[in-house]
Amino acid sequence: MQKFSLLLAAGLLIAAASYAQSAIEPAKPGITYGKAVTAEQAVAIPELQQKLQADTAFTGKIEGKVVEVCKKKGCFMKLERPTGDAIMVKFTDYAFFMPQNIVGKTVVVEGVARVNETSVERLKHFAEDAGKSKEEIARITAPKKDIVIVADGVLVVK
Fold this sequence. Notes:
Elements: H1 2-22, E1 32-34, E2 43-44, H2 45-54, E3 57-69, E4 76-79, E5 87-91, E6 106-118, H3 120-129, H4 134-138, E7 144-156
Parallel strand pairs: 2-3, 5-7
Antiparallel strand pairs: 1-7, 3-4, 3-6, 4-5, 6-7
């Protein structure tokens, strides 16, 4: 009986996660997630990096190309950076999620960007959510200091 209850609970969780992702509108130009955002006055990633060298935070709009999204339910995404590393984008209070087809799209995010240190535990959690292999997750052994954006809204530009 206990095994049946566990299987039923696991099945419900999987179904809920699948439904959560299917309820998200697919990404296409003009679609906004979270707070309504326009593309005016958005800064590119290299400009953001320069601004964060001079200040501890940047509040405004940032344009970038999505290179990764949380595979579980779209709870985070990453923006491409010229150096190859990606910038983590989280969403204020998990108020909205991204569709899986947003990878490869250019977006404008509005929110606050800061340089943060992310713990090993949190990095491993993000890697699991992104569907990384056990080997890739095991290679995470040190915290990472990097730009993190907390977005109130996301606009798909192209």
